[in-house]
Design brief:
Elements: H1 2-7, E1 15-16, H2 35-41, E2 43-47, E3 50-56, E4 61-66, E5 69-74, E6 80-86, E7 89-97, E8 99-103, H3 111-114, E9 126-132, E10 143-146, E11 151-156, E12 163-167, E13 170-172, E14 175-182, E15 188-192, H4 198-205
Parallel strand pairs: 1-15
Antiparallel strand pairs: 2-15, 3-4, 3-14, 5-8, 5-12, 6-7, 6-11, 8-9, 9-10, 11-14, 12-13
Amino acid sequence: MLQTLHAFLEHGRPIYGMNFGSIGFLMNEFREEDLRERLSAAESANVHPLRMTAVTRDGKSVESLAFNEVSLLRETRQAAKLRILVDGKVRIPELICDGILISTPAGSTAYNLSAHGPILPIDADLLALTPISAFRPRRWRGALLPHKARTRFEIMEADKRPVSAVADDKEVRSVRSVEVAEDRSITMTMLFDQGHSLDERILAEQFVD
């Protein structure tokens, strides 16, 4: 589904996916019968991507979009050291961790949930900022950010502790800094079978053991 959303960015068409695999949270059940009727009755959900701007250690700037999350991950055995700024203000001077991610509501049930981040309703004007195996500050479990927030990650000791940045499936190695903000100029529409909307799935996921 993520690959399809990226592939059809310029087409402005709603996307209806059917699950041929295992998890497929953003997919509908695979059934060939009554497909036209299912499409006619389908419920829609609009999603906006994150726009990532990553600057590598050699000064190259790379932009990419993410409908699920942008994650920063350590590349070696050394833990990452990150400085986190939100709207230009330093919020965490030094986070020692395996990584960190910032997630959209649509992506909050994916990697974010696995990293013990919060599940966000699809219409919440929020982003989830979630650390991955934080060592220090040891008790910091992340934050909820307004969707308009601009988040900047600065990699400390980047030569000794290299970090990669990943926007959905686009990876940039050896970054020096990463800026992330929601891009509301882009809207993609996903379709879900009646009674199985993305709202309902995200709500139900919070009651799964």
